[in-house]
Design brief:
Layout (H helix, E strand, L loop, with lengths): L1 E5 L2 H11 L3 E5 L5 E3 L6 E2 L5 E2 L1 E3 L4 H11 L4 E4 L5 H16 L7 E4 L7 H9 L6 H27 L10 H17 L4 E11 L2 E10 L2 E2 L8 H10 L4 E15 L7 H12 L3 H13 L15 H15 L39 H16 L5 E12 L4 E12 L29 E13 L8 H11 L7 H10 L3 E3 L5 E3 L1 H13 L6 H15 L5 H20 L3 H18 L12 E6 L2 E6 L8 E4 L5 E3 L1 E2 L5 E2 L5 E4 L2 E6 L2 E5 L4 E3 L10 H9 L9 E5 L6 E5 L7 E4 L2 E4 L6 H9 L14
Parallel strand pairs: 1-2, 1-7, 7-8
Antiparallel strand pairs: 3-6, 4-5, 9-10, 9-15, 10-11, 10-14, 12-13, 12-15, 13-14, 16-17, 18-19, 19-20, 20-21, 22-23, 24-25, 25-26, 26-27, 28-29, 29-30, 30-31
Helix pairs in contact: 3-5, 5-15, 5-16, 6-13, 6-14, 8-12, 9-11, 9-13, 14-17
């Protein structure tokens, strides 16, 4: 019997049907091993040796694999065809070798980019060795992330600065904060435009002023109303005019390239309003059903077989006019695209897949249309530009009419638009030079320049890709992580705002870990990982080159006083508070600044303890003064909102929540502006999550008892040892856990029979 190991159970079922008798297909269910979650698991003094442990909950999968392996003559490691997949195959091989289960058995590494019978059988017929270069790139990446996490997270926890900081996520947060600073610093500029209603016989069309008194009129030329009034006084309507010039040309528009991971996430966000995580979840299911090729890729090329199938489908369904003479070729833009050989495409082109529903149906339809369209002819347009001149006035009005004359690929797919959009502008009536035209109305419009737009998931992914930061396998994780850690949040328009925690951690990292959030440094790190993948650089030199400057940053940050850190954060936050009108205390007139507590950042008076004024800085950047209770003590402002149907949104002692009067549900990711009735109902109706299995952190040397981490509990995540429980925000390292457990003050309970 042959044993084939893949990553997901659904994929295993599909492949086992293809292979038939004599084969057993089992799943590892993703990664099975990770670094031991404690300090020293990457030994920086010993060539970065790494200590591994079976991940909690994966013992069952390892047992299943080992039981099946005992019956097998050969084992095929068929994890995904990328860096992480290569690492999973390497981990499995290492575990099985250590268990001495491979003696006398043949071991092969196989990889396929689509789950079709043809692709799977072809991979099995052409096995290879594990690509050690890809594995080394994974080891470098994992070591970097570990060293940053265990180096910087304790510094954040000790000073209540944040939950944790990641190598790429921190850059994403800083990009959001930098954009917010640009918006706050933006000073709008006034400008004007002048539109004209033109009439030729019974046909009406619009034009815009393009020249006046010998001066070309551009966007910012007319700066104020006084200048506009001067122009209006010179051009009194109605005024006779004539066609001075006509310029006709044909314009064509090429179809967009087939999807990469990045462009799929961007387009799904625009058209379907999917988050990156939601997009990749649906894509994963489509891939496992054998409906699309591998969904983590930088490549835009298609296989010759796929192009042949697509061209055949276009001919049958649309006709030869929609088929270009030769296939459309797309050049991959990503500098180091290598982890997959094709763009994301359907695996079959006889007809769109039937039987799908929900997210999978919507995403498959998007992929199907984009892939078919990429091999179709260009869309064609007639463009006519006309200059209209008033008689006896030194002025000119310009109008452009564009008409689609052949839809080409647009009959199937329009990028970044709803498929029902008609890509045409105002049609012009038949005109020739010298024709008389009447200008019957002038429409002056006042405008103001706009600040740069806040990032959406689509535009942030695009920005990261442009900067060379992150890779196809990481974009969705980056987006979800910065939201889950409450460093950013999305408003109703799905645009990112930095939270108070995001402002604070960005300010801290920019000052004390400048390289960590520098886009050039991070992009260079990604290039280094690619160099390791390509065999151009060895693992240890790559890690050494990163670790030496990073260790210097850690060493320099450990002994900095918290007061100095707060001063630096306030230097960054001063402009933000000023933009909110909260730079001086409303009670005593002294300066306001950011303060830190275990509940997060808040605004406080620098004249403390003489002045006790404090205010809450909410997730939209709004400062709300704290209220006084009946005894004169300050309490957090409730910011209650009636959402309808008897449901209220409130902010209490432990943060935002929704309530229907009988049941409360936490709403930590939402504000009064971003919460909706539908979201509140979903939160209230959500089932209580099952209690997750605990993770062993390590032994407490003081008691000799094991410390466990529980990700969910009645009051959130906590650690426990020897009947002592301590709430935490995320899993701590062993040193921190020991300190928290040993310093936990016992609860004081009255003795039985004692008077209350």
């Amino acid at each position: 019997m042959n044993l084939l190991i893949v990553e997901s159970p659904s994929k295993a079922k599909t492949i086992e049907k293809y292979l038939g008798a004599g084969w057993r297909v089992v799943a590892s269910v993703g990664h099975v091993r990770d670094l031991v979650p404690e300090n020293g698991s990457v030994d920086t003094e010993n060539n970065f040796a790494m200590r591994w442990a079976i991940m909690p909950g994966k013992e069952k999968q390892i047992k299943l694999i080992t039981d099946e392996l005992k019956k097998a003559d050969a084992v095929y490691l068929a994890s995904d065809p990328d860096r992480e997949g290569e690492a999973i195959a390497w981990h499995l091989l290492d575990i099985l070798t250590a268990k001495k289960l491979l003696a006398g058995k043949r071991v092969y590494r196989v990889a396929f980019h689509e789950i079709t019978k043809k692709a799977v059988l072809a991979a099995i017929e052409n096995p290879r060795e594990i690509d050690q270069n890809l594995v080394d790139a994974y080891l470098v990446r994992r070591a970097l992330d570990y060293l940053i996490g265990f180096g910087i997270s304790p510094l954040l926890w000790r000073r209540n600065l944040g939950k944790s900081a990641g190598r790429v996520q921190s850059v994403a947060v800083k990009l959001v904060v930098d954009r917010e600073q640009e918006i706050e610093a933006f000073k709008p500029k006034e400008y004007w435009s002048l539109g004209a209603t033109c009439v030729k016989n019974d046909a009406t069309f619009n034009a815009n002023l393009s020249q006046f008194n010998g001066q070309k009129i551009e966007k910012m030329t007319i700066e104020n109303k006084q200048q506009m009034d001067t122009i209006l006084s010179a051009i009194q309507v109605p005024v006779a005019a004539f066609v001075d010039n006509i310029e006709k040309k044909k314009v064509s528009r090429k179809p967009a390239a087939p999807f990469t991971t990045s462009t799929l996430q961007q387009e799904a966000a625009r058209k379907l309003y999917f988050s990156s995580k939601r997009t990749m979840g649906a894509a994963q299911k489509l891939y496992e059903q054998g409906l699309i090729t591998y969904m983590r890729t930088d490549a835009t090329n298609l296989s010759a077989d796929a192009v042949t199938e697509i061209r055949g489908y276009i001919t049958r369904t649309h006709g030869d006019r929609y088929l270009p003479k030769s296939p459309n070729i797309y050049v991959t833009k990503s500098k180091n695209a290598q982890e997959a050989h094709e763009a994301i495409r359907p695996t079959h082109f006889d007809a769109p897949a039937a039987g799908l529903s929900g997210d999978e149906a919507k995403l498959y339809d998007l992929i199907w249309k984009r892939t078919i369209a990429c091999q179709m002819t260009n869309a064609e347009f007639d463009s006519v530009a006309v200059d209209i001149k008033p008689k006896n006035i030194d002025a000119c009005f310009h109008s452009v009419g564009t008409t689609r004359t052949f839809d080409g690929f647009m009959t199937v797919y329009i990028e970044d638009r709803d498929d029902t959009d008609d890509d045409t502008t105002t049609k012009l009536p038949p005109l020739v030079v010298g024709d008389a035209v009447d200008i019957t109305e002038l429409t002056p419009d006042q405008h103001f320049t706009q600040p740069p737009a806040r990032y959406t998931e689509a535009s942030l992914v695009k920005k990261l890709e442009e900067l060379g930061i992150g890779r196809p396998s990481t974009y969705a994780t980056i987006m979800s992580t910065i939201v889950d850690r409450a460093y950013v949040e999305q408003d109703k328009q799905r645009r990112f705002h930095p939270t108070p925690g995001g402002w604070v951690i960005a300010a801290y990292l920019s000052k004390y870990f400048a390289d960590l959030v520098d886009v050039n440094f991070t992009a260079k790190t990604e290039d280094t990982l690619d160099d390791v993948s390509n065999g151009k650089m060895q693992k240890v030199p790559a890690l050494t080159g990163f670790w030496e400057p990073t260790k210097a940053m850690f060493d320099g940050a450990r002994d900095i006083k918290t007061t100095d850190i707060i001063d630096q954060i306030n230097m960054v936050m001063a402009s933000h508070l000023g933009a909110l009108g909260m730079d001086t205390c409303p009670e005593c007139g002294q300066k306001l600044g950011i303060k830190l507590s275990k509940y997060g950042a808040f605004v406080g008076c620098t004249n403390y303890p003489i002045c006790h004024y404090t205010a809450r800085l909410d997730n939209t950047g709004t400062v709300t003064p704290d209220e006084n209770d009946e005894k004169g003590r300050q309490t957090p402002a409730t910011n209650s909102v009636d959402l309808g149907d008897g449901i209220m949104f409130k902010v209490g002692k432990y943060g935002p929540y929704v309530t229907n009067g009988t049941k409360n549900a936490a709403a930590k990711k939402y504000t009064a502006d971003s919460i909706t009735l539908e979201i509140a109902q979903e939160l209230l109706n959500a089932d209580t999550p099952a209690k997750a299995d605990p993770t062993q952190i390590g032994e407490n040397p003081t008691t000799g008892k094991m410390i466990f981490y529980y990700p969910t509990g009645r009051y959130g995540a906590y650690i426990s040892s020897n009947k002592v429980n301590v709430s935490v925000k995320s899993q701590p390292d062993l040193e921190t856990a020991i300190e928290l457990i040993n310093n936990k003050k016992p609860a004081i309970r009255p003795k039985k029979g004692a008077k209350k």
